[in-house]
Amino acid sequence: MFFNSYFSTVRERLLQQSTSNNKPKISPSVFYDKPVMDSMFCWPVDSEEIRQLIYNLKIPKSPGYDNIGASLIKETVEGLVRPRAYIYNISVETGIFPENLKIAKVIPTYKR
Predict the structure, then answer these.
(1) Are residues 28 and 59 in contact, defined by beta-carbon separation less than 8 angstroms?
(2) What is the tens place of the pLDDT at every residue in 25-76?
(3) Which of 2, 44, 66, 88 is the most exposed place for a label (fewest CB within 10 A)?
(4) Among candidate residues 68, 69, 66, 71, the one with its CA nearest the CA of residue 103
(5) To 10 degrees, what angle do helices 77-94 and 47-55 make?
């Protein structure tokens, strides 16, 4: 009981300490500043970075929810790099991600 009563009265005790010695009361807003809207930064990607990621895909991997395998992506790499870099950069810049990029196909593999 002592443990619970100690922690449940911390706020009141801090407020009493802050009002003694003619100090103003502590407001919760004192502990946080204005929110930082630009607190996350991702470097823009370029076509070469996308190209390297595609070349490093493993061929035997299963296709995604759209049934497009890594081998087909590797075969069409030159037509994909610029649009993919553009979509990624615009998505990060605006904070709006296409719904199709939010979908994953997860298939559990059971051990014997």
Answers:
(1) no
(2) 566 565 566 656 666 678 899 999 999 999 998 887 677 778 888 888 899 9
(3) 2
(4) 66
(5) 120
Q: Is 4 helix (H, G, I), strand (E, B) or coil?
A: helix
Report helix, strand or coil for 108: coil
Does the pTM exceed 0.85?
no
- CA 40 → CA 50, 72, 92, distances in Å? 21, 34, 10
Alpha-carbon radius of gyration of the chain = 27
Residue whose token pair is 């939010």: 102
* Distance, CA of 73 to CA of 92 (rounded, Å): 23
Helix (H) or strand (E) holding 89, with range, is helix 77-94
Identify residue 103 by its one-letter amino acid code: I
Q: Which two tokens stand for residue 42?
A: 């991702």
Distance CA 61, CA 73 (A): 12
